[in-house]
Design a protein that fits this description.
The protein is of the alpha/beta class. Helix content is 45%, strand content 18%. The protein has a 4-stranded parallel sheet with strand order 2-1-3-4, sandwiched between helices. The longest helix is centred in the first third of the chain and has 13 residues.
């Protein structure tokens, strides 16, 4: 089984967790931790999380921003067996990972990261949408 730990500066992590509750009906393999909102420490949360991880389980750590303090703290946990860190998370990435029931290979992880990047785009009206709007005016 793969377990996930998502942390962010502020409430982004729990916000993604809330979205997963709505879209997927829950997320029992994902632990969310909002950093810097109270006295609770990310290190303590990670230590507690890793106590629940069996030696054969895969762990994917997810952070909000490369080079940020959350990511830097999570980086220090890469010495745990079967642990990978992915940063720059968005909802598409987390959904793509959570819905997989099998261990996540590096190739699969690369594919999901690529797909989540492609989900980020500028949305513009298409030519046909503009024409339809103009037709309604007359």
């Amino acid at each position: 089984m793969t377990k996930f730990f998502l942390s962010s500066h502020g409430r982004l992590a729990s916000g993604i967790g809330s979205s997963l509750d709505i879209l997927l009906g829950g997320h029992d393999r994902l632990t969310c931790f909002d950093s810097y909102i109270d006295e609770h420490s990310l290190n303590d949360a990670l230590d507690q999380f890793f106590q629940s991880v069996e030696p054969e389980e895969q762990v994917i750590l997810l952070s909000d921003m490369y080079g940020g303090s959350v990511n830097s703290t999570m980086y220090t946990y890469l010495n745990h067996p079967n642990t990978t860190l992915v940063t720059g998370v968005n909802l598409a990435l987390v959904i793509g990972l959570i819905i997989l029931e099998t261990p996540i290979t590096r190739d699969v992880l690369d594919q999901i990261v690529t797909q989540s990047r492609e989900a980020i785009r500028i949305v513009e009206l298409e030519e046909t949408d503009i024409l339809e709007e103009n037709e309604e005016l007359f």
